[in-house]
Amino acid sequence: MTDYLESAPRMRLGTFLGVPQATSASAGQIAVIGLPFDCGTHATRIGSRQGPAAFRAMSSEVRPFYPPLADVDPRAGGRVVDLGDVDVVASDLGPSLAAMEAAIHEVVKADAVPLCVGGDGTVTLPVLRALAKRYPELVLIHIDAHTDAYPGEDVNTGTTFTRAAQEGLIDTRRSFHIGARGTMLVAGAYDHTRALGYRLIPGEEVRKRGPEAIAAEVREVVGTRPVHLSFDMDYFDPSAAPGVATPTWGGPPVAEVFDLLHGLKGLDLVGVDINTLSPPHDVQGMSAMLAGHVAVIALHLIQLGQAEHRLNAGHR
Amino acid sequence: MTDYLESAPRMRLGTFLGVPQATSASAGQIAVIGLPFDCGTHATRIGSRQGPAAFRAMSSEVRPFYPPLADVDPRAGGRVVDLGDVDVVASDLGPSLAAMEAAIHEVVKADAVPLCVGGDGTVTLPVLRALAKRYPELVLIHIDAHTDAYPGEDVNTGTTFTRAAQEGLIDTRRSFHIGARGTMLVAGAYDHTRALGYRLIPGEEVRKRGPEAIAAEVREVVGTRPVHLSFDMDYFDPSAAPGVATPTWGGPPVAEVFDLLHGLKGLDLVGVDINTLSPPHDVQGMSAMLAGHVAVIALHLIQLGQAEHRLNAGHR
Amino acid sequence: MTDYLESAPRMRLGTFLGVPQATSASAGQIAVIGLPFDCGTHATRIGSRQGPAAFRAMSSEVRPFYPPLADVDPRAGGRVVDLGDVDVVASDLGPSLAAMEAAIHEVVKADAVPLCVGGDGTVTLPVLRALAKRYPELVLIHIDAHTDAYPGEDVNTGTTFTRAAQEGLIDTRRSFHIGARGTMLVAGAYDHTRALGYRLIPGEEVRKRGPEAIAAEVREVVGTRPVHLSFDMDYFDPSAAPGVATPTWGGPPVAEVFDLLHGLKGLDLVGVDINTLSPPHDVQGMSAMLAGHVAVIALHLIQLGQAEHRLNAGHR
Amino acid sequence: MTDYLESAPRMRLGTFLGVPQATSASAGQIAVIGLPFDCGTHATRIGSRQGPAAFRAMSSEVRPFYPPLADVDPRAGGRVVDLGDVDVVASDLGPSLAAMEAAIHEVVKADAVPLCVGGDGTVTLPVLRALAKRYPELVLIHIDAHTDAYPGEDVNTGTTFTRAAQEGLIDTRRSFHIGARGTMLVAGAYDHTRALGYRLIPGEEVRKRGPEAIAAEVREVVGTRPVHLSFDMDYFDPSAAPGVATPTWGGPPVAEVFDLLHGLKGLDLVGVDINTLSPPHDVQGMSAMLAGHVAVIALHLIQLGQAEHRLNAGHR
Amino acid sequence: MTDYLESAPRMRLGTFLGVPQATSASAGQIAVIGLPFDCGTHATRIGSRQGPAAFRAMSSEVRPFYPPLADVDPRAGGRVVDLGDVDVVASDLGPSLAAMEAAIHEVVKADAVPLCVGGDGTVTLPVLRALAKRYPELVLIHIDAHTDAYPGEDVNTGTTFTRAAQEGLIDTRRSFHIGARGTMLVAGAYDHTRALGYRLIPGEEVRKRGPEAIAAEVREVVGTRPVHLSFDMDYFDPSAAPGVATPTWGGPPVAEVFDLLHGLKGLDLVGVDINTLSPPHDVQGMSAMLAGHVAVIALHLIQLGQAEHRLNAGHR
Amino acid sequence: MTDYLESAPRMRLGTFLGVPQATSASAGQIAVIGLPFDCGTHATRIGSRQGPAAFRAMSSEVRPFYPPLADVDPRAGGRVVDLGDVDVVASDLGPSLAAMEAAIHEVVKADAVPLCVGGDGTVTLPVLRALAKRYPELVLIHIDAHTDAYPGEDVNTGTTFTRAAQEGLIDTRRSFHIGARGTMLVAGAYDHTRALGYRLIPGEEVRKRGPEAIAAEVREVVGTRPVHLSFDMDYFDPSAAPGVATPTWGGPPVAEVFDLLHGLKGLDLVGVDINTLSPPHDVQGMSAMLAGHVAVIALHLIQLGQAEHRLNAGHR
Question: PROSITE patterns annotated for this entry (chains A, B, C, D, E, F) (predicted)?
Fold first, then answer.
């Protein structure tokens, strides 16, 4: 405990994990960015615009070292910075998507990795648009209790990946939707997702085969391609993460969610978003704290991937 | 207690105060209508789309007889019906405003009185549009910790009454904003409200002169004109009503809010809306229950006004 | 999403899943009925009288299509109606039991299936009394952390199935108590249950054999007999469902509870009750929402059973 | 702080204010007694059976010295003991009323003063029955947002003082109901209370005349007669005490409630009950803590009355 | 609204009111500083170490313009900065007091004004120690439900102002304790406070004379001397601010607390602390939001005082 | 149910499970003792000083009979007493440790078994010091998401077992730390624990091998030696026990925690502590209730061990 305390800044502020605040990121850095937009939410439980603030606040309860992946501090050497929140306009979809895309693109152009915190599931679309400009072979791993690839012409939380497929932002044949489960508003949700070219692994299949097997399949298909990981907090069971827009009962135990994420070790993560954290529906900030744990895992995964793919050479 | 229980329907459902569900209202009736729209909220605490549901649910804790105004049951003779919620589209302002206006207009055309429950402060605009078609001399009484008459070209919770004035929906010189107080996002908020022609009585003035004096002034100015009462739940102090979008400290004790409302007795209320109830930010449903109490007062005020103005003849 | 929204009524009210309100049900329909009685609760945490209201309110977060059983809308064709709550008298057991039995019997007589929501565990008794008149071969599947078959002459939440056995309402030798676990107020609780003729499968056995094996045994024993499913919300672990009268730690993960229920597919369910939801002890309405998920499963199970047993002919 | 800590027992348990646990009380002592019965509650929010436990637990946040009345420790000399809870039977009114009456009567017989904590408003009836045997001239001061003197033959929270009047337990012409306000379930509630002989001072009158004037009137009418003070926690505004069965908006500020109670100084209090604390509907235990403050005031009022009436001689 | 949004930084972080983060302050600036120390709390409800974080987080709900004092933005011209939290050591009083004093002294030396947020009531001691070095004529205005000037040799929340008097940090004869009320742990608390030379105005006196009269007396006595304002959040009634260490019922309405503070306009405030905000005991962050409102008032009071005393010349 | 109710005392107070209050314990008895000290907590979420009170209060929801271990009442024959809380001094580590050690030692000397409830993780140190005087061969089983055996010279929650090892209180080579997992503040935490001689079984290993296998290994190593069981509530996943100081995601399902504890059957438990229950961070008292369940398991384990080791003779 001593070491950390001694090396800590004498005065602290509310960035994620106390990392330095910055206005831009440089090559190799990980840039935490808040995307406080939730007006793509047509469901009852809107409120994820408060997600980034809660995420940062509860990161006081999360620690940086993580033996299951790496017993090191991912913040070492100033490798993580916090860029604050993108200034979106509530209810005004167009300008908000543009502002988010522009902010992420600045990060991506600098060869830094954006670690985005939503906001609802629409925020993933501008992230993918920004990444796609830089990584033409981009692959998606989407972990969520819903596929968010429903039919429809709108941009909302249910059509993010319909749009992404139609805009050609990602290689859908090598992209995964993992964990769909539960009750649905429409019939044929899974079929439409597959019709767009995606690989769909429902939650039930994850339970049967186990998270390690799923992760192995993902690694096999994805290979060395650049990957964006989109993690919807409602993949957790509501007993663990009540503070989401669409709680969906029957999710895996938290430890198995971590197993699945651990299994992505070695992939070349060029972007991550954690979305749908809805603080007004949370209980004692626990879902926000859990999102922080996911973010620590992401920090380690990104850095382990960077180590691997730097050695494997300049494939980009 | 006996009487009420005996006359109650054997099976009950979740309408406001257990009144009958209906699809339309007839002359003289009061029609409860939910307006679950909140995407005019640019502030942090969005969520009033859940307002109508919470309002109906907590009405189980509110009773109909009200000695301070009338020791009678306002539901008697089927005079109150519940029309359910208007089917708005989240984040899509135009169609939502149109749908709300159309639904309210049906009620107004039938000479029934809409008792609307928001939703955020934008929902008052379609209500006024609907009423203005029927009542050219319409007057507004707006009770709120904010004037919602800020500069700007947008339709959002801050510009409802800027729009209403510019569209000529109401007689601004006889219309009141009562209760503005607290911290503000911009300078000159009060001046702009007055520049639109409105009468502004800040909360501080209410405290000094007392609610009875304020109500007397209002009655004097309004006279026999048709009135819409728009009540924002944040007029209450946050100690009483935490479940609102913009809690504003320093409000009056609840009993004095009731005094102010009681003082409107005799006015010809042709419309009422209660807005900005934000259930995800509420505590134990208490703000929703308080909104129900305001609605019971409104039921009595409307009926007392109807009794008076029916005797006073067909001024419409 | 489009389809559902388009076909939805323009105005909505607080019935379960938005189904039509009705005053009676016809053959083949499923009738949702609230039984807001909790004065059989001798334990500390009384409050399940608020269960039906919370259940309906939180059904806004549950969807109708359910791929694990059937990717169809069980409400299609008006097959589900909501009859509201039976008008019980708090603390007056006799008249309340009678009122509940009469209301359920009307439904049963019409060859509709009651889907009852409590209320505490005593509400199952009048449901069984009503069903027994119509189905002499009635079998019970009781899923609960307690057997509620304790010794005693009283009618309370602990003696419901002692009474049911002694009154001969069900075929105890083919009836199951599944899931008893945890700490107990008295010794010999399991022995007494078995002495009444019931089959008892403690929670520990469910964990060891797995829910699929248990369900297979149940299907084997029950066969084509008419079944009442009584589901106590405290079967869930308190981490998932804190809002119950007697939280009992050590329950199965939610997904395994669903597995168990899925395994009842094909049985001829002629009645269902979901009880012991105690909203004042709930957290953010999550237990109520979970009860809604159980109800959606029940809707599908009932309809799948109807399809099967209609084909198999008029065995009643 | 030192003094108290030094004189405190080395080990502490959960009695009210840490007073000694006892099984009986002796002359002049004040006996704290829990009455965990709430099945006289016909309203939605049952749960005051948990009141005594919460009351004791939150007394850790209340202190004994009270400058507005007496800057002394009322516990000094072992003058306060805690007898624990009476063992009532949930839902079984008759035996429960008998058990409560018997337990209180033991205390009263010993010339000790019962300080009872409910439980719902029915618990006042057995307290009055026990006191009436000892004090034929008993007078009631009932402070409550409701008169609980409604018509009806039942024993429930709404008829306690109808029963008390009809059984002749108190001198109704010198007994007060102070503070009725708000919405009502039936018409004529005030008239019926007065028809029973009671003095009724509605909350509105308290607001206009002020608590000091009301207290003066009470002292004038009551004189040296033995008094039972029944305090319903819903007399507080729900902003202060949400944890009650029937929250009733428009109550006085807490400081004015204290003023009213302080004004009872000098009366000969022979019994006190504080009822209707409903912990499952409370927020952070604040209503329970407030009940503890009322109890400290009661301790001082009782002892100040004892001092006065001991000097004034053996009027009993 | 437009102006503010346009001038806002494109990306935001969690400082108080979004002001710039800084590591030091310059002359005339106001420096927000968190003092997350709470181990001077001997009472049950420890937790104010989480105060600064909650204070900053909830400042998203507070606005800068404040018509009752000044319709200007106090942040204009970079006049407010946020220095983050002092790095204290939990449970180690000595080093923590030293670290806080050193950090504040740096600010004071630079002729900036510290606006400190606790932490419990012990944090005021190091603030006074730092200020006393710079302002030999320092006067204290302490607004609190307790005097915190109890006997004892310890440094804890109850002896802060005993220590301050004995160390000669302030001119006690011109220093005020305003608002003591409620139940107490020891006898003679008020006498000891006065024996130290302080002026004591109990809460009861504030209620009778009114906040304006009290403020006038304070201004009269204090004159042009440099003032430290220490504001304990428990001065608010617990109905408004439950999230404190020692909730004390019977406080003034929030509007009257603001009146008292407004009355300090014109004083030369050289330091402010807001303490005893205990987030784990708060409800929906409302107490933290209220602390933010007090801080906005303080920002305006400081700047109005600076304007006045700069004109009145270089008395320092 | 009848039996228990009939044999219950007529009046009850807030001891654990309603056992008798006592001031000392005799041979063979189990003595419940509260250790309300939390100033060894350097993390954000202090508050476990409120643990013992919440633990006792929520024991109303836990029952004594426990079929998985023994279908008997462990309270029978007065074998369990509640000694209340040790009177510690907040923030003053030295005297508090001494007071706790002295109180426990009295119990141990009398050949009773202390069942201690914290308080934070520092309270285990005085318990071990007291036990070590009586049991030179003492062995520790520490079940916790952290090893609390970090480097450092301080006494705080992170160094309890570093101190215990260095003071030679326990046989570290036969002592276990079970369940460490999650994110960490420093590197090398596991190595340091092992360097002190302890056996470390990380949570991941428990998941892989299963709780039965782990328990078997423990029994094998420990044999007939006297054992202290220290159970940190954060071993549970935060979805089950949010009310702890350092919630650590990824814990086992509650049922598997019970399996692990059941596996300790037969060991000679001479002391137990349950620590780190932090009520202000709890949700609806559920973590406190879960601690009560652990305590019931402990009561049975202790008595089963006593039965076994009394038969096996006087090895002490």
Answer: ARGINASE_1, ARGINASE_2
